[in-house]
Amino acid sequence: MGGTAAITLVGGPPGLLDDCFGLLGELEQAWSRFLPSSDVWRLNWSQGRPVRVRPSTARLVAELIDAWALTDGDFDPTVLPQLVASGYDASRVDASRRTSLPETAAWPGEVAGIEIAGLDIRLPLGTTLDPGGLGKGLAADMIAELALDRGADGVLAEVGGDLVVAGLAPDATAWTIGIADPFTPGELVSVIRLARGSVATSSRLVRVWASFDGPAHHLINPGTGVGAVTPTVTSTVIAGTGVRAEALAKLAFVRDSHRLLDWLPRAGAAGLIVAADQRHTCTVNWGDFA
């Protein structure tokens, strides 16, 4: 998934941890936009034809559509042509893996026109998908589900910075989670206690590269098709699932931060935003998790 992963189990049978990491490997093979054998690659090259995919990919595409609808399009899973055009075509983990798109690929894509019929998915001609961070959040959700289904008492699954906790915490109360300070390595801007749910952080300082137009990052503004210009440096959201936390965390880079922080509690979430001036602001309910 283009980053690190960590899984902590409370209880559970022997071999369960290996099974959890095995699931993560399977999801990487299914969802990577850098692997020609993946479901996502095959969908992006389908040229408007239906493609039979794995059950996990059918769920992924449904979650991408739901996140787009939840955010009124401010989470846009079809920005891949813009990412590739800006210079993010190679994997940050293995530069030999590169995204290739058909000449018909275009942005914006037609999210509303995506069709799901069981395991058969059809993307409108020109529409391509990039699971991006939402894929990491969903992977953490699915690992947590697997762990509890297979007999773990509790689980913490972290995939590329998206963290999901479920079941029993080590202290039988809640998991203690630190929120990193983007300006001071090793320091924290907040510490939360989370009994269940997810916390996801998005940053415009992590995936950066030199483009023809200067420094670029991976957070594309769906209103302009180019990297978001914003004072927000990092956005952290606490929500019920990894998918929801990830989708909502992206909004701080395309919406007014103050209005977003007012709205997040009404969406069943809490948020913390760190700006370029190193100030951080949070929702009124952030303290509920302190």
Characterise the protein shown here.
- With 290 residues, this protein is of the alpha+beta class.
- It has 2 domains: 34-130, Orthogonal Bundle (T-fold), CATH 1.10.3980; 174-289, ApbE-like domains (T-fold).
- The chain is built from 7 helices and 14 strands.
- The chain has a 7-stranded antiparallel β-sheet. Strands 2-4-3 form a 3-stranded antiparallel β-sheet.
- The two termini are 30 Å apart.
Key descriptive features of the protein:
alpha+beta; 7 helices; 24% strand; T-fold; 27% helix; 290 residues
In N-to-C order, the SSE pattern is EHHEHHEEHEEEEEEEEHHEE
Task: Determine the mean pLDDT.
Answer: 92
Based on secondary structure, the structural category is alpha+beta
The CATH architecture of the largest domain is Roll
Shape: globular
Main sheet overview: 7 strands, antiparallel
> Uncertain runs with pLDDT below 50, 5 residues or more?
none
Q: What portion of residues is helical?
A: 25-40%
What would the CATH topology of the largest domain be?
Answer: T-fold
Question: What is the gist of this entry?
Answer:
The protein has 2 domains: 97 residues, T-fold; 116 residues, ApbE-like domains (T-fold). Helices cover 27% and strands 24% of the residues.
Furnish the topology, listing elements before pairings:
Layout: E1 5-10, H1 16-31, H2 39-44, E2 51-52, H3 55-70, H4 80-86, E3 115-117, E4 120-122, H5 132-149, E5 154-159, E6 162-167, E7 175-180, E8 188-194, E9 197-203, E10 208-211, E11 214-217, E12 232-239, H6 242-249, H7 257-263, E13 270-275, E14 280-282
